[in-house]
Each structure stands twice: as C-alpha cells, then as structure tokens.
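Researcher: Next sequence.
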Amino acid sequence: MDNTSAIVTSPHLETFETKIDKIFRDINNWFKTNELVLHYNEIHFLQFNVKNSRDYDLKLNYQGNYIKSSSNTKFWDLIIDDYRGRLI
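Model: Next structure:
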C-alpha cells in the first residue's frame, strides 16, 4: 500500500499527541492485520499553523520510531508546502 495519509488537528499540543498516538496505533494494527509493513523511515509529516499561533518544535515518534518533519509533500500530483498549505 502506498501513499497513506492522515490529517490530525488540535488546538493543544497534548491533545494532538494523544490523537497522533491513536492514529499510529490504528494504522499499525490495520497493516499487521492485512500482513503489511509500515516503513517508518518513509513516513514524514507537515505542520500547519494558523496565523499568529505558536510554532511547536514537534518531535514525533511511535514505539521508538522517529517520524521525520518535512516542509513539503506530493499528494497525487499536487505539491503541498507547510506555508499555510499552499499548493505549488
């Protein structure tokens, strides 16, 4: 399976961390059930903030697997960057 995406929103860092942990747990369980492997070294995330909000220095990991931050990603044929979700 390629190009799995998840969108997580939260106004508070603590709630975000709880949500992202649940999403990784659910995705990991689904992959295991379907005899697939989640390659953590290929996962990355983009952080979007609303104007005038605090920019957190997120360090995401799940079960000791570090998730890399990125400033842009390609989704289908769109390139999305972390500057207010601008499409390139």
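Model: Residues 13-33 form the longest helix (21 residues). The chain has one domain: 13-81.
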